[in-house]
Amino acid sequence: MKPERLLKHEFVEFIPDQLEDDTIYISIPYATVTHKCCCGCGTEVVTPLSPTDWTLTFDGESVSLDPSIGNWSFDCKSHYWIWRDRIYWAERWSEKRIKHGRLYERAAKEMYFHDLHSAKKRDEEKRARRFWRRIREWRW
User: Fold this and answer.
1) Are residues 76 and 99 in the same domain?
2) How far is the CA of 16 from the CAs of 56, 57, 61, in angstroms?
3) pLDDT of residue 99
4) pLDDT (0 to 100) of residue 128
5) How many CB atoms lie within 10 A of CB 26?
6) pLDDT tens digit sequence for 104-120
7) Same domain, 58 and 106
8) Contact by Cβ (8 Å): 25, 33
């Protein structure tokens, strides 16, 4: 699949009020990437960067976002990848597939945060056991 067009990227602290066409704005301090929808409808697309949302890759020359961008709540319902500053169009999703995709994303987020909470709880329990072991060793 050939890319439709090349995009520019700009690293900024704050996302500008007026977005330029074909420009991806990246705010590392606010873990956010924003651009105008690549279909040309002009709608602002915000992709939060986090372990459960999008990841940004910068290779020193270009940027890529993962996963794809599915603008399911927009009238255009556009779906594309941004890889190495280029747009690669993806297939259009049906309403049924969009619904299943949203359910999957919600479940994946719940699992991530459940696992994160469980790991923190295990770490706290280990620290408590070490603390009490030190107290016992000190007393004897």
Assistant:
1) no
2) 19, 21, 22
3) 87
4) 67
5) 21
6) 888 888 887 676 566 67
7) no
8) yes
**Element (DSSP H or E) covering residue 81:** strand 79-83
Q: State how many domains the chain has.
A: 2
> DSSP character for 87?
E
User: Do residue 110 and residue 135 come from a single domain?
Assistant: yes
**Residue range 60-82, pLDDT digits in tens:** 999 999 999 999 889 999 999 99
Predicted pLDDT of residue 97: 86
| Of 34, 36, 26, residue with least CA distance to 5 | 36
State pTM to two decimals. 0.72
Question: Is residue 83 located within the same domain as residue 117?
Answer: no
> In this structure, are residues 10 and 26 in contact, taking their beta carbons and an 8 Å threshold?
yes
Other beta carbons less than 10 A from residue 95's beta carbon: 9
| Domain co-membership, 107 together with 52 | no
Q: Give the residue numbers spanning the domain of 131.
A: 94-140
Cβ count near 68 (within 10 Å): 16
Mean pLDDT, all residues of the chain: 86
Same domain, 56 and 99: no
**In this structure, are 46 and 65 located in the same domain?**
yes
Same domain, 51 and 4: yes
